[in-house]
Amino acid sequence: MVENAISQQLDYGGIYLVRFDPAKGAEVGKQRPAIVLQSSSMLKAGVPTVLVCPLTSQMRPELEIIRVEIPSRDSLAQCSYAMVEHIRSISVRRITHRKLAQISQTEHSQLRDKVLIVMGFDV
């Protein structure tokens, strides 16, 4: 299956271009970078979906408590912000590009903390 081959090539914490359209209501749309948040073991199992966190280039001060800054690096052209409130599962077929960059261990820890805030857990 094509999905198996795609998911097995993804890396946990990798940043890839994702096609989020069609979007409904306030969902994130268009093609944009996203961080793969699915465990390596799930990726290697070849599941046809993957959990991702979309990025935006716009920082909204009122959402700073749940955003993680991802500075530009490698093929990630501009400073971006992880939109933790928009984490979702997508078909691996929505991934349209090779890996752009990899998040750092510090960014991983910040993402984990922000996910806990969004889910209502005390950090």
Explain this structure.
The protein has 123 residues and is α+β, with helices and mostly antiparallel strands. It has a single domain, classed as SH3 type barrels (Roll), CATH 2.30.30. The chain has helices spanning 2-8, 40-44, 105-118; strands spanning 14-19, 31-36, 49-56, 67-70, 80-83, 88-91, 101-102. Strands 1, 2, 3, 4, 5, 6 and 7 form a seven-stranded antiparallel beta sheet that branches.
The CATH class, by name, is Mainly Beta
Structural class assignment: alpha+beta
What do the pLDDT scores average to?
A: 90
Percent in helix: 10-25%
Low-confidence stretches: none
Taken from the alpha-carbon principal axes, the silhouette is: globular
Notable characteristics:
about 120 residues; alpha+beta; SH3 type barrels; seven-stranded antiparallel beta sheet; 3 helices; about 30% strand
